Every structure is written in structure tokens, then in C-alpha cells.
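Progress note, project year one: complex with zinc ion.
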Amino acid sequence: MIREDLWEQWYQLLLSQWGLDYRLAFIVGAVQAALQTYDYDAVTITSGYRSPIRQKELQAKWDSGDRTGLAARPATRSWHMQGLAVDVSTRSQNFNLFREIMESVPGIRWGGRFKKVDRVHFDLPIGQPKSIDQLIAARF
Ligand SMILES: [Zn+2]
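Model obtained:
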């Protein structure tokens, strides 16, 4: 059983504070609530939705040679820009437990298994990832 009050709290927080798509918020909220239901600490979330404009700024920052806070050039197509990706701290005490439960959910991918390993990253690919320019064009 998962405590539904915790699930609801996480779901709302993941929507409002982290800007996740409701489908990913539903899953991540369930996993965080499951951990807490069994007296484990939830993991620390470090990133959720990123706007295409912000992503473009980060690319420009990288291209200018300023790489502080960036491990790689921010991707032109990123599920973060559709609210379908979340990053969590690998230093969280229960990171491995969180990862195992997340990976048991159909459709969820862990970035630790990507060719370009990204251990903090989990996503829920739905449809085609859109590029920065496609997403910016869709806004106006
Ligand atoms: Zn990520």
C-alpha cells in the first residue's frame, strides 16, 4: 500500500514546483510516497521541466566556453523541455531503491543505461521528442 495523502502531496508538488507532465508526476509521486510509506526518505529532486528558451541559453553558455554547472552540452531534444524527465541526486540515501522501483515501471527509462550515461536522469518518452526551435515556435 502507498499512503495516498503522501502521493497526492508529491503529485501536486511535482506539477507545481517542478513542472512535470502529469503522467510522470503521477509515477514519481507514487515512488516517493511508497518510500515514505515504508519509512525510507524520499530522494532529492534536482531538475524537472526546463523551458526551451532556458535550454537555448544553456547551450549558448556552453558554446561560449563557460561550462560551470554543466556536465555536457545541453541537448537540442530533451524530455525535460516537455516535462517528461526528472533528475534526482545520486547522493540521496535511497537512490538505488528509488531507481529500482522506477525501472520496474513500464515506459520509464533510467539515464544510467544510456550510451551517454546520465545517472541522475529518469524519463518517460511519449511520442517524439521535439527540438528547442520546434517548441519555441509552438509557443508563439
Ligand atoms: Zn535529466
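Residues 47, 80, 85, 87, 121 surround zinc ion (CB under 6 Å).
Residues 52 and 132 are 5 Å apart (CA to CA).
No further modelling is planned for this target in the current period.
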